[in-house]
Amino acid sequence: MAAPPEKTEMVYVEHCKGINGLDKVVLREVRGCSAEVYLYGGQVTSWKNVHGEELLFVSSKANFKPPNAIRGGIPICFPQFSNLGPLEQHGFVRNRLWSIDNDPPPFATTSTNKAFVDLILKHSEEDFKIWPYRCEFRLRVTLGPGGDLMLTSRIRNMSADGKPFSFTFAYHTYFAVTDISEVRVEGLETLDYLDNLKNRERFTEQGDAIVFESEMDRIYLGTPTKIAILDHERKRTFVLRKDGLPDAVVWNPWDKKAKAMTDFGDEEYKHMLCVEAACIEKPITLKPGEEWRGRQEISTVPSSYFSGQLRPQGALLSG
């Protein structure tokens, strides 16, 4: 009589090599969802649901070669967003090599999630030359049993000379969508925004939802803790929940800018949308020893129809 097949133990966290030999961590949950995090940039580059469908956009032309930033996934913008400041665009942590944090301070959570990784980036002498402050950046990436993806950042001022520092921040999340012309963003109605295409002039959102017909690059201010991104073609709604991040960036480069970017396909703008939990308008200031925490959680729910309209209110009101 043949012996019963051995049960293979679930591997929730796997350390392995990715593109061009870069180190990455793969997170898996029992139902089949997964996420990938590269130590280069501390960057999530993949988030798949239980059907193996990719939920994040990474350009086919993305560079996985330091010192280039990886185009797609969830780059982290710190200590500045955009290029308004002395540093390179979106700061420098997205093109630094992070380390596994083997001794993280306790997180205030009762969660029993097993698929998570703790990363740490300590300010180097090289960084000190371009940004003269001492800081420590801890990042926890967690994949929940239901497929939710959570990123928690903890930034501490490690200065010994009594100097505070200020920064702006964003989780530059690239969502994969079927057709950008069939996407709506809800939850930002009636809010003020700064238009990056018009020298950050301030406007008030007039529509009952944000739709896309041309290039968009806006910073919405004082945003709610939940935002919904509706993919009409896929009948899927992304729900973004955030904490400690009062602003939200909405960006799509459209055709002309897409063709001008060397690490972005000419037609790929049709299949991506950035909606970013951020803190930009009012920079965060930390005194020595102080810590800031910012958190983003993204999940998906089916979109339902009523008279031909998507109804995300349930997604926004639940939970």
Automatic annotation (TrEMBL):
Record's keyword annotation contains Glycoprotein: no
GO molecular function: carbohydrate binding; glucose-6-phosphate 1-epimerase activity
Entry EC no(s): 5.1.3.15
Pfam families according to UniProt: Aldose_epim
Active site annotation, chain numbering: 172, 276
Residues noted as binding substrate in the record, renumbered to the chain: 71, 89, 94
Database matches in SUPFAM superfamilies: Galactose mutarotase-like
UniProt KW keywords: Isomerase
UniProt record, GO biological process: carbohydrate metabolic process
GO cellular component: cytoplasm
Residue intervals passing through the bilayer: none
EC supergroup of this enzyme: isomerase
Hydrolase among keywords: no
Catalysed reactions listed for this entry: alpha-D-glucose 6-phosphate = beta-D-glucose 6-phosphate
Protein family (similarity comment): Belongs to the glucose-6-phosphate 1-epimerase family.
Protein name per UniProt: glucose-6-phosphate 1-epimerase
Organism of provenance: Trapa natans
